[in-house]
Fold each of these.
Amino acid sequence: MNFLLIICDQLRQDALGFYGNKIIKTPNIDNLANESAVFTNAYCASPLCVPARISILTGRYVISFAGGHSGSGHSAAPRLSHLLKEAGYHTAALGKMHFDPCTSSYGFDRFVKSEDTSEHRQYKDDYQQYLAQKGLFEWGHGLDNWDIVWTASLLKKEDYVTTWNGDQAVEYLRSGRPKDRPFFCVCSFPKPHPPFDPPKPYDTMYDPQTLPLPKGCIDPIENKPQTIRQWQQAWDFNFCMQRRIQSNITSHYYGNISLIDDQIGRITETLREQKIYDDTVILFLSDHGEQLGDQRCFMKHFGYESSIHIPMFIKAPGIRPGTCDRFVNQTDIVPTICSLAGISAPPRADGLDLLKTYSGKAPEREYSVSNSAAGGGWFSIQTKKWKYIYYLNGGEHELYDISNGCEEENLARNPNYAGQVKTMQSALIEWLSALQKNSDPGAPLYTENGKLKFKPYNDKIFNSIKRRPLAHRIPDYLT
């Protein structure tokens, strides 16, 4: 049995046809989902690239390691790649891995990188070397991976990073893997993460005027925590919220997703060509979502549905296709693959076997929890009706009725919902206490004397991103 783990960067769940989007064109991903166990309530452990990927490969929340988000305690933890390599699998990492430290291979036999941060790119990863040999530059348009604006790539489709990632996967499946043993391959696309710059013709595939308006924008900004208000101001989200700008960002985001879908089609076709499709477990997910203007925000970073609600499905031999609405998250990947491979998961893995969850044999989670260090740090905890977000910076909070799938009105300041706030706080404290019992020595503590910790509000946190609004206003890219 082989394992193919496909990861997209910054792909929100509702941007795929199978999950109900009537505009996006993702026929290959939809076809794969139709053969899979699909999870409708899948959430990321953290809506940031590095911690999310640590959870995917270790089966643990990053805050369970010594030092948490800011430490290196995770570096010594066994990765899925280590476990499968020891079990005789050939292991390959293709694309954006975002390893920390960036020069580590973490147990992968084959390592072909296409990263998107300056730290990683200064080592001239494989994709950058490919472009240099052809005299090309990826970001010749002047944008980088944090700029919230749209444009068309100056590269041709065949030289664009998404196509290059597809090429690497196809080449590996055809000739890059040993044919005498099974493989574990991670195919990780850096897109649709910014810059929102699909190559032609994908930049004009979607008419901006036909795309839906952002959700969750009815609530007055004054009803949001200070952290969110300052976040919006620091990144100049109001400028990006202008309808022409927001809709063009979304149309280019969709274009990048459709290009990824084309590569998924090439990969599944190659699996069939090699006669290993039926013997290969395919697990598809993203590291986190993208706001696209929902709640007047862009990028990821937030505890809102658009940032943390992700696609996740698994095609495995003998598993009947269907959907499951139980809560699952990225820590479930390791125990699932270990179970299918017949090996033991690490003893401190936080996750559950997805297939046991799908069949009803695993205990059902009452809550889903996500966490981030961004903006001073926050936790979100939710049921299928209620979502509570707690901000460590200042101790503010939000409460939403998410029955309709979106955060509309912050009810945390409404005295009629004080009881629900207390219920969700208690649930978060209980969840954190359970996690801390299974954490490494030196892991951060977020509760004290039965209460959630907080720090006095620090308004200097957002100083480092004050230059970002300048990129939004480059006229060449807003015509």
Amino acid sequence: MIQKAKEKIKNNYILLVIATLFFLMYAALSWVRHYNFQSNAYDLGIFNQTLYNYAHLSLGPNTLRHVDTLFGDHFEPILFLFTPLYYLFGTYTLLVVQVMAIILGGFGVYKLIKEHTGHKNYAIIATTIFFSSFGVFQALAFDYHNNVIGAMAIPWILYYLLKKDYFKYYLIFILCLSCKETMALVGIMIGVSIICFNRKQWQHGLITMSVSVFWFLLTTQVLIPFFNNNSQYDHWQSFSNLGTGPLDALYNAIIDPVSFVFRFVDNNDKIQMWWIIILSGGLFAFFYPRYSIMLLPLLSQKFLAQNSAYWGYYFHYNIELMIIVVIAGSVFISENIANKNLKYFILLSLCIINIGYSFKLEFYDNSKLTKIFTCDYYFNSQQRDLVQAIAMIPVSSDVIAQNHLIPHLANRKNINVLPHFTHSEDKNISNNAYQCPSLVNHEYLILNLADESVWPMTSIEQVKKIIVDGYDHNSDVKTIYNSNNVILYQLSLN
């Protein structure tokens, strides 16, 4: 067995070296950010509180997302699978899972492309394109999301379908569906692809498509509304301009296809994003319908949404897109370009383009990937003080905290970000202290005045004026830690 492992390592040495290099980059971008208190309440804080609840055999509530259970927002039961890891990795759990999933997803790309082409070196270059994709780095820079885990299942689903290993195919397919209700849309197109392009396996295509349709309808029309106090599926609001629901949107697209298609390119941000996709491999991927057909729901979610955050390259909205672009583009090049040198030249060019985009494109916070190669990135002068202040807060207590502190404090039943404050009209409160009703229900408030991220408040100056000036001389509030711009208040307001 050990000898077999040694042989595998020897035969895949180059792939493992490349995977290790990207693993180190991913860990630096994801784990170091969290260590230095740069991860966000939305969404890592939300997921961490949910993971804490699951680890303590409770579905909720999620006080950050303001739902009784996160099932009322998105249906993502895959989190149950990661719950035991909470006791090993604490607030880092989901970040560890996400990095490892991306590495495994890259190995899936390698296996699939090698199976298609029969060339190991070609598959290694294709895998490098995926590892270096801007979609991967943008997702890692924005904490954790379950759609990233679902996207990493796609190459394995396609690989086991190709190998006709149906037990593993359906196992990973079910895990993919459990990552997020919208993964069912990709599942529908996988089924359509099988029926259209793998006719000998049409039964599996029909099953895949039927299960996906059923799961999408069940989660969006029954389960999520049930857990959301019998409300509707809230996320359709992002597409309400298309119709009252998916069927109405489809009807409108059929009766007015020109207007529908124009929505994909009706904005300069969308056009810029199309160019990025095309130059990153989409130019070739779009000509391989067997796999590119799976891009239809992803491109629709991206460009038809009313929220402009979906249109660009920021956040986690491109990772499913890019893994399919890499797979479809690589297979198309292999099957349609006969000249070996030209084939490798194009693939290497795509690799360089993707690396270039990953370093050029800014993250949501206006930083760039180059920061992980600077010494300052690994140092936070407030880190020790923040750890000491957080250690003073009992796990059973209710807390209000600044955005970047929330993910480290989400292991509790009740936690909230800084609220919108209004000046108190109560003359009985000393020193004209600013008040907010939600503070009455919390025991601690922690701030890092050296951190400019004070969302949903507007500026650190506002925090100083409203909170610090208001509470420093308030007899109802006790300052129990104040060092190096880190302040911890104990609240006893009645």
Amino acid sequence: MKMSIQKLFAPVLLAVALAPLALTAQAHNHSGNEGRDAHHERMEERMEERRQEVYERAEISAEKQAELNEAYAEHRDAMNALREEHKERVTEILSEEEQEALRTAMHEIREEYRGKHGKRGYDDHSDGNADSE
């Protein structure tokens, strides 16, 4: 019976633990990137659903799930801060024109790579087996 109660309340506890993060994410706006923000938000939701599925399959307690979610949020925040710091440094080094040229070159190279290797970097195999070569 105890296991079923934990499974019953685990999603509720997770939702309560994640609510402040969701509100913070909604309040945070990357100026001019609304489309990217919506995509990023959907991706975060899918990752959250997968984490929850993994927690349930691994029978992780609600308390430890909350701790893991907090550790994940701290990691994500640290990575975002590092990314912003890097963007500021690039802004100090390159002019607007050089930044645009760099973005364009990176986009072109990424598209060329995808053309050769597929979207995720894997060759398309008709049999679905990447090791068949």
